[in-house]
Design goal:
- This protein is an alpha+beta fold.
- It folds into two domains: 1-8 and 27-59 and 111-330, no CATH class; 368-474, Immunoglobulin-like (Sandwich).
- The protein is 41% helix and 20% strand.
- The strands form five sheets. Strands 8, 9, 10, 12 and 14 form a five-stranded antiparallel β-sheet that branches. Strands 13-11-15-16 form a four-stranded antiparallel β-sheet, with no helix packed on it.
- α2 (38-56) packs across α5, α3 runs antiparallel to α17 and α7 (152-177) packs across α9 (197-217).
- The chain binds iron/sulfur cluster (2 copies).
Amino acid sequence: MSDPVPEVPPPEAPPSAEDDHRLYAGRKQIYVRSISGYFTNWRWALVWLTQIIFYGLPWLTWNDRQAVLLHIVERKFYIFGGVFWPHDVFYLALLLIVSAYSLFFFTAIAGRLWCGYACPQTVYTEIFLWIEQKIEGDHNQRMKRDKAPMSGRKLALRAAKFSAWGLFSLWTSFTFVAYFSPLSELLAAVPTLAFGPWEWFWLLFYAAFTFLLAGVLREQVCLFMCPYARFQSVMFDQDTLVITYDEQRGEPRGVHRKNEDAKAAGKGDCVDCGICVHVCPTGIDIRKGLQYACIGCAACIDACDQVMDKVGAPHGLIRYTTEHALKNKWGNKEILAHVRRPRTLVYGALLLVVISAFIWGLATRVPLRVDIIRDRGVLGREVEDGMIENVYQLQIMNMTEGARRFNFAVEGLEGLRVEGDNTVSIGAAETQTFILSLRAPTSAGEPGAHKVFLTTTAEDAPDTRVREKTIFFFPR
Ligand code: SF4
Ligand code: SF4
């Protein structure tokens, strides 16, 4: 016979008459109990992965510069070998669409995976909780200390916790700013604190934001600020995997006494220990059914599985399952078979199309941009050798990380040519604007406007070529 579960929480106090007449309920402090287990390990693996990427990326170099730098001042985005400009916003738009469809697709299959494992609010709350537990102890100690009057030790622990949170928040905001302002310049400014005004603003704002959201507000963000929780249900159907308490197996709940045959006594597997509630970061009781406040972190699954080990019952009283699976007593095979359904197929197909468009766009992107504007002040004039000259303003963006020479070719009129040197050198990731003169024999066209084309080609890469249309004007 297995051991009885040691901890049974006091029953929840019923709402008082005063509570009933209050318009707004006060915040109930949640003391999250730490837990270990299969899903907790996955969550921590994702915490490590996302944070190694976030804190590590600004330190990576590529071609002697920061590998990822969204340089606001220069209005250029350096992402490994690519240099992107504001007009490349098309790729950002595609990336946002990919993110949205990924969210729809994975939510339809497995519920709030994003919230439970990868959302920054979850990740930073987890880290802040870990710091809190290391300094102030587990939930019981924190609860007792909060109720106790202020003492020197309590003050010292609070100060240590807030200082650790503060330092971590500053490190986070420093990393965040390093994505938009070169890390080397930020590091050079640290000893004298000589940051620029907008850097100061974001360093302080983002640090305060991190501290407030992950240290103070925590579950309040998920419950009252995040819009996703409110509309997630439209992406769910009866075949979506959600974290569910198996009521048929668990009820009637009750403490299993030592040496008692719970089944014979008519009791379900739930021993009403409340540990699933203690580990819940939003403080809900999953046994009351699916609730919008459930962020899908699966901490209650790990907690309940440990309890089941102690009472000698199989895992899975709380588990990932679907409404249909629960109703029809399906196993994993049937659940998997229902992943493929119209909703997921449509989301999956759309996702595939947008990802393909994104990859195709990047693969065929020409790292050169040319803008040609006709000088409207001079319509076209006859020059010394009987030719007609038109003047243009040409802007060339070299979107690569190396200096390049470009040459020009013109077409559209018999004898049309570039006057003077028809090559130009442009530095790495630079833009140059200059005057270009085109000349054509008087006999090449009737008076009026004629369509002509200018092709700009990189000398070292003939595939890097842009053909632009413009107008050549013959005076009357
Ligand atoms: S569902 Fe599991 S963890 Fe929750 S009270 Fe019942 S036995 Fe305890
Ligand atoms: S009910 Fe379970 S899965 Fe939902 S938030 Fe609470 S602990 Fe996480």
